[in-house]
Every structure is written in structure tokens, then in C-alpha cells.
Specification:
single chain, alpha+beta, Glycosyltransferase, nine-stranded antiparallel sheet, five-stranded antiparallel sheet, Beta-galactosidase, Chain A, domain 5, 16 helices, globular, hydrolase activity, hydrolyzing O-glycosyl compounds, 3 domains
Length: 679
């Protein structure tokens, strides 16, 4: 039955997702709709299939309590995107429009919707999360009138009742010299008063510098409820003419500003009095710079779109200037996972970002350094030395996993995963000042943790007992293969870092690393843990010893582990497992199996109409940025043959699928190198 479900899901995702070109994905079908978020690393705007609809807005690094689970949860922002429009007294709805079309332009990070209202008008609107003004959303609107019409447009700030206390809604017209600046504003505290949030918005007329104020529509303020703050205008549009304007909003919090209310007004005024051309040109310039790191696939348009969409999301959810990390779902949704930070960031998203954008990659590792003291407190709390990073982290750096979940208490490999990302950042950037200031302090404390965490056996070997491994189906086990392998790697990396800085390494690091046990079956196949008996697994665990840890190196051993564990992967598990298998097969030169597993790693998880990824083939939550990271690693480190080494990034034995004509990896590493793979 599961095989049939897998086939059906794969067929659906293949058939319904439109194909246009490598940068644009369009749809005319709003059924079974999963939107693609517009994000700039500070806020995420999730459009809907409904005309002028925004499902919600998510604010990065703004956490308050989840009343049900009693843990932290990332906050929704005030929703400033749900515009209403009337033409000749009739409200535009899904039911009275035709020719509906949406196009996601990944190159410029914008979503354009167009439709026809009866025989009267064609309307276009484009949503941006401005990369250059990270607290701002911008909706650019154009109405083409086929006959003379009277248009009424209402912009709205809606405050989610689940995330906020009752807002204070205002409207005022600020004046300086001869300039009038209308500002709609809502200010509220988050549910448990942890944060103050202010949203300001206004209409922008694109000819503001050339027309007098008297020519602009008069604005009317209203409140349809205490949670909605509205601003409207009416305007006649003559036949065969157009009206072009924008609805622009700014959302600020006391996390970033001492006075978020005033700052949201200032940024709104900045957007109001800066031309559309200037604002959007800066946004496009920054995205064009991001796309200096790109993957080009010739001969497979669908794969090109899918891979670029994955990269688009990692770029969207990260910034190089905020020292924040990326949650499994990025800034697309609150649930699942409450916007918390997991190993997903270091093991899955970080490596592609490290290849293409060292600035964003540095933010991810700096986030962990920023919370080193909290990790040291956690280690002390549980009786260990060094630093013990939480399985789920938020803006406090403390453990925020729900208490019922064993992962929060026992899934300790994340502490090693973080150290691995730290050393890889240094290997790629060779930034010795960063290594001394931030990298080595983390590597040292992580190594001290593993020395205290390991238990000495009677034969002088070391075990790591009572953990949850990467395969979370198995809890409270001893000597989990990946946990032990990642601990070995982290300990060795700490020694290398000390040597690099001419610091004497603690000899216990190497001693323990050399003696941590990894168990095997009689035929040499790696055991997932000391008592593993062939159970189904949630995701790759043992095979991570081949990639990315490079502990299992022998070809026959690698193949044994691959063939043993692939059939045991559950359809209920996340996508990354098959990405790992794909990478390993590609590195062995087996293009057919590598391509098969590459496609299986994400195609069953794609959702119409754009290809948004869910965590599993049977789930509908998206966008799963962790899966994007796995997919991109399959291309970069599998087919592309890239390796992170002590000499930097090198290419060894790339492996091109027969379905592709050429693979180009552009903008790799600090030198922005290009790697080309052909048959």
C-alpha cells in the first residue's frame, strides 16, 4: 500500500506542476494550492491562491510562548497583505474573476498575479519582500481599465488574535514642509508581552514627485473590527487607461529597535518618498548578487526549476548581516517545529550556503557562537563539561524542545554537527581571525563535552551511551553510529584547529577520538547502534559515516552499508536520507542509482503548483528548507564532485546523469569559481 501511495504522489507532483523556463514558474490552476514564500531573511510573506490573499507573515527571531505546548514559538507578524478591491461597487472575489495566473520569478524574488474582472479591467499585482529594506513588504498594483470604472481599494493591517494582545490602531497624516505622509499603523504586544510589534503602511502613488497632492485620491480610515485597521481610496479610471500604485508596509519589533513604533513610521516614509524604480532596482541588484552563486542544468528543465527553487529558498531565508540561523521550514510557517533551529541548519542547509554564499553561512555559525554560554550552562546542568548545544534552539540559545520529546534530552549529535560546520567554514574561508575569535572557542568546548560524555569501557575503548541518533525511531540506545562518528570527527577537528592556531591541543581529544567504538555485523556492515537488529529507520544514520563524515572509506564497505540500509528507509521519514544515498552513489561513479535516489529524495514531496517541498511524501507542510539542502548537496557534492578539504574546495570524480547534458556550478567558494561537468 505504501508503494502505491508513493507512486501516486510522485505522479501527481510530476503532472500538475507547470514548466516555463529556468527562472519562472507559472500556474493557472489554484486547486490543491501550496504557495511559495517571499522572504528577505527578516520576514516571510506567504501568498495564497485567493485574489489579493496573503495567508500569513512570519517574523524571524521573534519568539513568544505557545500556549498549548508551553514552549517558545516563532511569531506571525501582523498581516499587511490582504487588500480588497471593488469596481463599480462590486467586490472582486475568486468567484467573479477569470484568466487567473500566478508567476514566481525566482531571479527577482517576486510573485506576480494577474486576472480579468468581467469585461471591465485587467489587474496585476506583484509581491516583494524587499531585500534592501528587510522590514518591508511591497505590493505593486496596476489596473488596466477596458471601460470607465470607479475603483475602491482598501489596504488592511490585520493583527492575528492568536499571537497578539489587542492592538492600538491609528491613522495620521504627518507633515514636514510641503510633504504630507499618510501613515496607517497598528501597535500590539505579543501574546505573553515578550515583544512589542509595530506595523505601518501606506499607499504610494508612483507619480508622487510630478503630481500635486490635490490630484491624489483622498484616503479614508476605518476599522472593520478591533483587529483590522483599514485605509481606503476611490478613483475613477477612464477607458483604456491605467492606475499604478503600491501598498507598502513595514514591520518592526523591539527585538531590533528600542522604539519600533517610530522606526516603522520612518521606514514607511522612506519607502513612500523613494521612487519605485530605486527601491525595486536595489532589491533586484541584491538578488542578482545572490544569484552569482547558481546551478545550471542543461537538458532537464524540471530539475533546473526544482534545484533553483531549493536555492531560492535558502537565499530567501538567510542573510549575511544578522547572525541568525534557518529553521527547518524557514520563514514559511510557524508549525511544525515552531521556527526553532535544529541540526538541519548545520548538516543540511549550511554546506550549500558555504559553497555559494560565505556571508550567509557565517551568520549560521555565528548564531551558534552567540549562544555558546547557554550551551555551556546546559552541559553543566546535565553534569558534563564544555558546551552541550540544544536539540531545538530559539533566540535564547536554550533548549526549547517540548519536554515530552526525547530528542530534546538525548539527541546529542547536534553538538558535534555544529563543530563540523565550524571547521568546514574555516576550511573554505581560511579566515584565521574568525577561527581564533569564534571558531576555536566553540570547537574547544565541544571537544571537552565529548570527552566528558564518552564512557570508558573495560577494554580501554569508549562508548557514548543513552542517546537518540539521527534515526529518531530508536531512542535511548548506546553507541549510535552517527552520534559516535560525528563525535570522533568533532574531536579531531578541535585538534586540527588548535594546531592551526599554534595552540597546544588537549591530548584527551585525540585519545578519546581514536577509541570511540562503532559496531559492525559479522559480515562487516556497520550497525546503527550496539543492539540494532534490522528495524526500519527514519532517515540516513550509518550512511552519514561515508558522507559527510568520510569515516567509512572502503568502497566495498560503503556499498554494503548502502545496500543494507536503503530498503529500511521509511516513507514516513524526511527527504534527506535519500539525498545522502544519492551523493554516495555519485561519488562511487554509479550515476543511475545516484539519479534515481536524487529524484526520489524530493519528487514525492513536491506540491502544486510551484513545487514546494514538504518534509515527507505523506505530509503537506512546506517549505522544507532542510530537504532543499539535501537536494542541493546531491547536486554539489554528488554529481558535481565537490569536496571540502583542508586545502579548500576541490573537485573529484564528478558524475553526470545521462538525463542531463551539462551541469555548471557557478560562483563556488570565496574565489567564485565555476565547475563544469559534461559527458
Amino acid at each position: 500500500m505504501k508503494k502505491i501511495m508513493f507512486a501516486i504522489l510522485s505522479l501527481i507532483s510530476t503532472v500538475v506542476i507547470g514548466q516555463q523556463d529556468g527562472w519562472n514558474i507559472s500556474t493557472t490552476n489554484s486547486e490543491n494550492y501550496t504557495g511559495i514564500v517571499l522572504s528577505n531573511g527578516q520576514l516571510g510573506i506567504l501568498p495564497s491562491e485567493h485574489v489579493f490573499g496573503i495567508k500569513h507573515i512570519v517574523l524571524n527571531n521573534i519568539y513568544d510562548s505557545d500556549a498549548d505546548l508551553e514552549i517558545s514559538r516563532i511569531s506571525q507578524g501582523m498581516n499587511f497583505g490582504n487588500i480588497e478591491m471593488e469596481i463599480d461597487g462590486e467586490k472582486i472575489t475568486d468567484a467573479n474573476i477569470s484568466n487567473w495566473n500566478q508567476t514566481l520569478n525566482m531571479k527577482e524574488a517576486k510573485l506576480t498575479t494577474s486576472f480579468t474582472f468581467k469585461d471591465k479591467a485587467t489587474i496585476y499585482y506583484t509581491i516583494y519582500a524587499l531585500r534592501n529594506v528587510p522590514n518591508a513588504g511591497y505590493i505593486d498594483i496596476k489596473i488596466d481599465a477596458n471601460k470607465e470604472i470607479l475603483t475602491k481599494v482598501t489596504g488592511k493591517i490585520s493583527t492575528p488574535t492568536t499571537d497578539y494582545q489587542k492592538p492600538r490602531n491609528t491613522y495620521k497624516i504627518l507633515k514636514d514642509l510641503e510633504t504630507s505622509m499618510p501613515i496607517l499603523q497598528s501597535v500590539a504586544f505579543s501574546s505573553f508581552k515578550k515583544h512589542k510589534v509595530s506595523t505601518s503602511a501606506t499607499f504610494i502613488w508612483h507619480n508622487i514627485n510630478s503630481s500635486s497632492e490635490s490630484e491624489r485620491p483622498e484616503l479614508t480610515h476605518s476599522t472593520s473590527s478591533e483587529w483590522d485597521n483599514c485605509l481606503s481610496f476611490e478613483k475613477k479610471i477612464s477607458k483604456n487607461s491605467s492606475l499604478e500604485f503600491a501598498w507598502a508596509a513595514v514591520e518592526c519589533t523591539d527585538k531590533d529597535f528600542a522604539d519600533p513604533k517610530s522606526e516603522s513610521e520612518r521606514i514607511t516614509i522612506f519607502n513612500l518618498l523613494t521612487s519605485k524604480e530605486t527601491l525595486l532596482q536595489q532589491h533586484k541588484y541584491l538578488w542578482n548578487t545572490l544569484w552569482g552563486g547558481d546551478i545550471i542544468i542543461e537538458g532537464d528543465l524540471q530539475a533546473q526549476q526544482d534545484v533553483r527553487l531549493a536555492l531560492y529558498h535558502l537565499y530567501s531565508f538567510g542573510r549575511g548581516d544578522n547572525d541568525l540561523s534557518i529553521a527547518p521550514m524557514g520563514l514559511s510557517v510557524q508549525v511544525p517545529y515552531n521556527g526553532h533551529i535544529f541540526w538541519d541548519s548545520e548538516l543540511w542547509m549550511f554546506p550549500p550556503l558555504l559553497m555559494f554564499n560565505q556571508d550567509i553561512a557565517r551568520s549560521l555559525v555565528n548564531y551558534r557562537f552567540k549562544h555558546l554560554d547557554a550551551a555551556k550552562r546546559k552541559a553543566k546542568t546535565y553534569g558534563y563539561l564544555g558546551a552541550m548545544f540544544p536539540w531545538e534552539s530559539d533566540d535564547t540559545g536554550e533548549e526549547v524542545t517540548p519536554p515530552f520529546a526525547l530528542t530534546g534530552t538525548f539527541e546529542h549529535h547536534i553538538t558535534a554537527d555544529i563543530a563540523i560546520a565550524f571547521w568546514n567554514y574555516y576550511r573554505v574561508t581560511n579566515d584565521k581571525a574568525w577561527l581564533m575569535e569564534k571558531g576555536y572557542p566553540v570547537l574547544k568546548e565541544v571537544a571537552n563535552f565529548w570527552v566528558s560524555r564518552a564512557v570508558k569501557n573495560s577494554d580501554e575503548s569508549y562508548s557514548i551511551k543513552n542517546v537518540v541518533g539521527a534515526n529518531e525511531f530508536a531512542a535511548n540506545i548506546d553507541d549510535n553510529a552517527f552520534t559516535n562518528g560525528s563525535a570522533i570527527t568533532a574531536l579531531n577537528y578541535a585538534t586540527l584547529a588548535a594546531t592551526e592556531l599554534a595552540i597546544k591541543a588537549d591530548p584527551e581529544w585525540k585519545k578519546v577520538a581514536d577509541r570511540i567504538v562503532i559496531h559492525h555485523f559479522k559480515d562487516g556492515t556497520t550497525m546503527e547502534h550496539s543492539k540494532y537488529a534490522g528495524d526500519q529507520i527514519k532517515q540516513a544514520d550509518v550512511n552519514l559515516l561515508s558522507y559527510p563524515l568520510d569515516i567509512v572509506k572502503d568502497r566495498q564497505h560503503i556499498l554494503k552499508d548502502l545496500k543494507y540500509y536503503e530498503p529500511k528507509l521509511s516513507i514516513e521519514g524526511p527527504a534527506m536520507g535519500k539525498s545522502v544515498f544519492s551523493i554516495i552513489y555519485a561519488r562511487l561513479g554509479d550515476a543511475n542509482n545516484a539519479y534515481r535516489l536524487f529524484k526520489e529524495s524530493y519528487e514525492p514531496n513536491r506540491h502544486a503548483p510551484f513545487g514546494a517541498l514538504s518534509e515527507t511524501a505523506t505530509a503537506n507542510n512546506s517549505y522544507f528548507a532542510t530537504g532543499a539542502g539535501g537536494m542541493l548537496q546531491a547536486v554539489l557534492f554528488g554529481f558535481g564532485g565537490l569536496h571540502i578539504t583542508d586545502k579548500g574546495i576541490i573537485q573529484e570524480t564528478p558524475c553526470l546523469p545521462k538525463q542531463w547534458k551539462k551541469l555548471v556550478l557557478k560562483g563556488i567558494g570565496p574565489k567564485k569559481e565555476t565547475f563544469v561537468v559534461t559527458h
